[in-house]
Every structure is written in structure tokens, then in C-alpha cells.
Amino acid sequence: MTATATLTVLPTSGALPGTEGAVGRLLRSHRPGAEPLRVLSASGQLGYGIVEASLERGLARQPHFIGCDMGSIDPGPYYLGSGAMAAPEAMVRRDLALVIAAARRHDIPLLIGSAGTAGARPHLAATLALVREVAHAQGLTLRLALIDSDVDAAVLTRALDEGRLQPLDDGEGPLPLPTADDIHACGHRVAQCGTETFRRALTPEVDMVLAGRACDTAIFATLPEMLGYDAGLALHMAKIVECTSLCCEPGGRDAILAELWPDHFVLESMNPALRATPASVAAHALYEQADPFVVEEPTGTLDLRQAHYEAVDARRTRVTGARFFTRSQPTLKVEGARWVGARTVLLAGIADPVMQGELPTALAQVEAKVRTLMPLSEGQVWTLHPHVYGQGAIAPLPVGQARAPELGLVLEFIASDAALAQTVAAVFKQNLLHHGYPGRLSTAGNLAFAFTPSELAAGEAYRFAIYHRLEGEDPAQIFQIRQEDLGNTASATHSANTPANTEACPA
Questions:
Q1: Helix crossing, 89-106 with 121-138: angle to 10°?
Q2: What is the pLDDT of residues 307-355, one digit of tens each?
Q3: Residue 198 and residue 481: Cα distance in Å, rounded?
Q4: Could you tell me if 333 and 325 are in contact, meaning their C-beta atoms sit under 8 angstroms apart?
Q5: Residues 428-446 pLDDT 10s
Q6: Are 22 and 221 in contact (CB under 8 A)?
Q7: Mean pLDDT over all residues of the chain?
Q8: Order of strands across the sheet with 323-326?
Q9: Residue 158 lies in a domain
Q10: pTM for this one?
């Protein structure tokens, strides 16, 4: 059962008239310098369990707003490509219930970014459905702003043709430019919205923002910037607190509180056992960054080269010195994942040191044999992707380093259909199990299996085809914003009288 909902489509600029919400009350009442702006980061990836005791400690400090990051591309291309959420639905519902109830109880704004893991339309819709469910169950009334981050294929193909789609160097080398076919083949294509888009969403009547794919920093830096705080300090604070207490010793998932002043901010974990030290906070600049001193945002560059970290006490650190330089034209990071095939995984262990030494040759020989045993029909293809743990699966072994006494073998088979992937894995397993190699002493079998069947269906496989920088596009034309009233039909007339000049994301 869902809450009663009315929709309001926003124009690209300006706010609708209406009852003042939590955002309007904050913007009207807070004055920088009179007191710190208290920012509570409740979750670094909503849906994996908010520590309720730490959240309550944070609420006792009377925060001015709550922010939660909900997504990332860290889980890989599957979630963006498929439209599925990574976090279990039951846990997402639980965490949403905690933060929505907290925000309404304290009458403060709640901002959530990268809804449903990858932040595409299916993720936003699934998260919105849970928000409606929670609001109905709690009997809440609130106005929600939604940000749609999907990008039309035509926008990207035009940018590709005009040289405005550029590679990103994330420290591991840039992904090659996609082809037009790659762009169209991606099930979902998203851009990361920044503070300029959140600013459009945070009109005075809003209580909560739920965004599709978003920069983590935008969740926490936009309201401070709107209140007049320094953009460099606000973005640096946001870059740290979006991961909650990961910046502490020892790191954790507990809520963290930032107290932002005009010339500095102070960080404190809401878990009394965790310490935000100068070293641990400064080290967090390495997180997800090829360059720890430069952070690129849609509208400019955050420069941390003059950042200074100073202990306030054993558990808190004061941070100063970050600077923000605006660029003349905004740029957007865009992401897209295309389907590769159906995946089956074969798991095995190898203890024979002779077999370990012969493994690369053995895998190649068995692959060739299986291809002769299994002629393919038209349109059928399969590929093998071996991962040998203990022999460089994670990182290349240093020269001269001996291999591990036991190897963990993960063979990934990706095929044009699930039945073919499963068949190839089964035939490959049996042939590798009894493959003869020089120096072999026993014919009993080359592999050890933890369980049967040892070949496991692993769903659909995707790859990132788009992970690039988009130039020359107005964010206001990319990111579409709409409002929805939950638990209240009184504002239904707003929808009828509002120009529908932006595309609403699906409910």
C-alpha cells in the first residue's frame, strides 16, 4: 500500500508558491557565524544498515539537516546495466524508515543521492516506491523533490561526434571512447549531478530530496553553499562525511557530525569508540582519488593543497584551507553499462605444485579442446576469463615471489545465452579435472571442489561502455526535477497550474 501522492513538475528555474517546508525554514533561520551549521551524515551507502544508536546520538546534537549517500559504481557495471538495486530491499526500507522518521521528527531537510545504487530511472523509481511506503506507514506528510539523472543516447552520440565526450583518467588509465553502438546498447546512461542541480531542487517548500546519480559531495555541500558558506570548505567537508565514519580510527559505518563555521569545520564520529584524528581525516583524501589534492566537480575544482588538519581533542579534528576554483563551463561525468552475456562461474582449488606451474598452459589447452568438442550454432559465442587467486588474480606477483601453496581457481564463462555458459563450464571442468600435463604424478584429478555442482549460474554480465567526461551541456537540460507531495492531497492544484516544461521521471 502506498501513500497518497500528487505530482508537481518543476520549471527549470524558480520555486513554486506553497507552504514553507524544512528547506525554507532552514534557509530563513540559519545565519553563518551565529552558530555552526551541524551536518549529520547518517549513511555512506544507505541500505546496508544504519547504526541506530549512533544516529540517535547525532540527532541529540540537533543537526540542521541529514544527508545519505546511497550509491556508487564501486559494485561494478551490473547494477547500472540491469537496473537492479545492490542493497537488500528489506534493509533499504529499514534505513529509509530511520532517516525519514528522524528528519520529520526534527523538522529538518533530508537529502539522499544516487538512489538505488546506480541512480538510473529504475533505481530512482524503486527507491521512491519504498519512500512512499515508509511515509504511509509512519503517517507522514512531506514534500519530496526528485532528480532524474538519466541521459538520452542522442545527447551522448551528438557529443561524441562533436568531440565533447572525453576519456576520464581515474588512475588506472582511461576507458576508450565508446562507439555510437556502445552508447545505444547501454541499458541505462546517467550523469552525476552536482550542487547546481541540488540547488534547483532545494526550493523553500521542499522537505526531502531524492536524487538519481549524484556527486557524493552535492548531497552535503549544497545547503551550506546556499546559506553562504565557503564552497571550498563545504565541498571538502562533504567529500569526507559522505562516507560517514570511514575517516576515523578505526574506520566504521557510524553516523558522523560535521560542525561547519565560516572558516573551518570540525568532524566527530557519533560512535564514542571512533576517533577522527588529523592523520585519519587527511588520509581519507586518498579515498577514490587518483590525486589526493585535486577533486573535480561539475562546476570546478576543489584544491586541497593548502588544507590543514588539527586535533581539537582525542576524538575530533578541525579542518581549514580548502579552496574551490570555478570553471567557465560545467562538465559532467557520465556512466553507462551494456550487456555482455550470460555468466557461469566455476570454482575449484589446486594444491599440486606441478599443476600450478603448468596452469596457464593447461587452461589454454583445455579451452582449445572444449572449442573443438562444442561446435557453435550461428550467433553463439563464449569467452573464458580465468582468475587465479594466489597467482596474481588481484595484483601481479612481484618478480621472484613464490606462488601460494594452494591456488583458488575462479573461471568465468560469458556466453551469448545462459544454457551455453552452463554447458561450456561443465565440459571445461571435466576436461581440466583430468587434463594431462608434464610431470603429472596422479590421475585421480587436478582440482578440488568445495561443493557440487561446482559450476554456478551467475546471472547476466555487463561492462562499462561509458565512463567519460561530457562537455558543453547545460546541467539544467540534463537533470529533470519534479516534486511529489506524500500523505497530502491539498496541493493537487499546484500540478494543474504549473507549466509542464520538464520531463518527469517515472514513478
A1: 60
A2: 999 999 999 999 999 999 999 999 999 999 999 999 999 999 998 888 9
A3: 9
A4: no
A5: 999 999 999 898 887 778 8
A6: no
A7: 90
A8: 294-297, 300-303, 323-326
A9: no
A10: 0.88
Helix axis angle, 52-60 to 89-106, nearest 10°:
10
Task: Report yes or no on 169 lying in a domain.
Answer: no
Q: How many whole angstroms separate alpha carbon 125 and alpha carbon 308?
A: 41
Q: Quick one: 374 and 405 in the same domain?
A: yes
Rounded to 10°, the helix 418-433/353-373 angle is: 130
Q: What single-letter amino acid sits at 387? A: H
Instruction: Quote the CA–CA distance of 428 and 408 in Å, as a whole number.
Output: 16
- Alpha carbon dihedral 338, 341, 344, 345, in 10-degree steps, equals -40
CATH number reported for the structural domain that contains residue 383 in this entry: 3.30.70
Residue 492 binned pLDDT confidence (cut-offs 50, 70, 90): very low
Here the cell at position 284 is 581519507
CA distances from residue 372 to 195, 330, 364 in whole angstroms, order as listed: 56, 54, 13
Domain of residue 353: give its range: 339-464
Rounded-to-integer distance, Cα 317 and Cα 277, Å? 6
Q: What is the rounded CA–CA span in Å between residue 35 and residue 452? A: 63
Q: How far apart are CA 341 and CA 358, in angstroms?
A: 29
Rounded to the nearest angstrom, the gap between the alpha carbon of residue 237 and the centroid of all alpha carbons in its chain is 19
3-class DSSP string for 72-129: CCCCCHHHHHHCCCCCCHHHHHHHHHHHHHHHHHHCCCEEEECCCCCCCHHHHHHHHH
In-domain check, residue 507: no
Q: Can you tell me the distance from the alpha carbon of 350 to that of 356, in angstroms, rounded to the nearest whole number?
A: 7
Q: Express each pLDDT in 252-303 by its tens digit.
A: 999 999 999 999 999 999 999 999 999 999 998 877 777 889 999 999 999 9
CA distance 189 to 338: 10
For residue 141, tell me if it sits in a domain. Answer: yes
- Residue 288 and residue 400 share a domain: no
Q: Of 503, 468, 505, which is closest to residue 159 (Cα–Cα)?
A: 468
What is the tally of structural domains in the chain?
2
Per the CB < 8 A criterion, the answer to whether 463 and 337 are in contact is yes
- 305 phi and psi angles, rounded to 5 deg: -65, -20
- Rounded to 5 degrees, φ, ψ at 309 are -120, 125
Cell 555512506 belongs to which residue?
A: 44
Q: Are 118 and 84 in contact (CB under 8 A)?
A: no
So what's the pLDDT on residue 494?
36
Pairing of strands 142-148, 208-211: parallel
Residue 446 is classified by DSSP as S
Question: Cα(69)–Cα(240) distance, rounded to whole angstroms?
Answer: 12
Hey, how many other C-beta atoms are within 10 angstroms of the C-beta on 472? 14
Instruction: Classify residue 64 as left (phi > 0), alpha (psi -120 to 50) or beta.
Output: alpha
Cross-strand partners of 339: 462
- Three-state SS at 312: coil
